[in-house]
Amino acid sequence: MGAFYNLMVCVFQEKYALARYMYKSGTEQIATIPMRVVGPVRIVSAEVNDDVALPLATLESPLWPSTHRGARVCTLSGGIKAVIVDERMTRSVLVEADSLAEAHSVYLDIQKQKETLQSIVRESSRFARLIDMHAQIVGSLLYLRFELLTGDAAGHNMVTLAADRMLEWILNQYPVLRYVSISGNYCSDKKVSAVNGILGRGKHVVAEVCIPRSLCRRFLKTQPEKIVDLNIKKNLLGNIIAGGLRTANAHFANMLLGFYLATGQDVANIIEGSQGIVHTEMRGDELYFSVTLPNVIVGAIGSGKTLGFVRENLQLLGCMKKQEAGYNARRLAIIAASVVLCGELSLLAAQTNKGELMRSHLKLERE
After folding, report:
1. Catalytic member of 50, 266, 279, 356
2. Tens of pLDDT, residues 243-265
3. DSSP calls for 140-202
């Protein structure tokens, strides 16, 4: 046992020394993840009116043909229609006072200072715009949630810088307050929460499609009524009994992860991004299928966007155009929601047929 312990200590020390050397020397390694382009899919919206190819980077190989199948049937059905309902990026700061009365009094006054705060935000970035502010008071703790527009960037750093500048002004303006944190978790960044679904973080996107019965049977190998029934029993009721928080979907995270990796996004944002709802119903003899994603966090500029394959994919998606600020990010969010719809539709169709899901995984992941 002693010899084994000594061996493990040596292995740990060797790996730690290597990691420390790599960190000091600046050595960089690249993790290779398979990527394919599926589709195209027809998308109709204010930002997109085109057939769009969909790059996905994933280790789950069945995701490619499944999303491709969804894209094909949606295109043949006339395309996916999508809208951005709202957009905003958030950062919450946390301060405290000696008493509840002081914290409450400060908040009432801060609400009157939005023009001043807006000027502070503009000084921090030429793209950042303060659009709203919310607060929660817990005892003598004051949580302030700032909501900003961030142009074509996802906006993590932009809103943090703006929040940092506003926080500095607030602490100087109200000496009764003390600093606690630049982030009070009321944002809520990369965590499952109700607040993001209610107030929004990123782009709030809704996408829909109507699929004729004939196409549903031919390409999805099922009846539209079965998909409607499964969505109720699996996505809605299943998520309720599981304690899902503002979510009712089968696997939004799979498509978002693949799309985020391919387009250089902060992939940890799939945590809040995968909170979304599938709604289905019969409309005459057609299947109405929609996905609602209130927290799609994407950017067409910023960290990760200078990588060669990312630039190629953004160019492929038409998200490197010189348009008004925010156009490319909105277009990217619309496409992201469309990718989610395609993959979600195909998976639910597969799950209406006994054994189909496992057969496809065994075939595609063992070839």
Report:
1. 266
2. 999 999 999 999 999 999 999 99
3. TEEEEEEEEE-TTB--HHHHHHHHHHHHHHHHHH-TT-EEEES--SSS-TTS--HHHHHH-SE
**For residue 210, is it within any domain?**
yes
- Identify the domain boundary among 127, 149, 181: 181
Task: Name the 3-class secondary structure at 251.
Answer: coil
Domain count, the chain: 2
> Is the bond into 40 cis (omega within 30 degrees of 0)?
yes
Whether residue 211 sits in one domain with residue 75: yes
Asked if 266 is an active-site residue, the reply is: yes
- Out of 60, 102, 208, 225, pick the active-site residue: 60
SS3 state of residue 293: strand
* 308 in the same domain as 208: yes
Kindly report the length of the chain: 367
As a whole-number percent, the residues of the chain with pLDDT over 70 amount to 89
DSSP state of 307: S
361 is catalytic: yes
> Global pTM?
0.89
The distance between the two most distant Cα atoms of the chain, rounded to a whole number of Å, is 74
Report how far Cα 201 is from the mean position of its chain's Cα atoms: 9
Instruction: Determine whether 60 is an active site residue.
Output: yes
Residue 116: give its domain's CATH number.
Answer: 3.30.70.420
Note the helical H segments in 31-99. 63-76
Query: Is 142 among the domain residues?
Result: yes
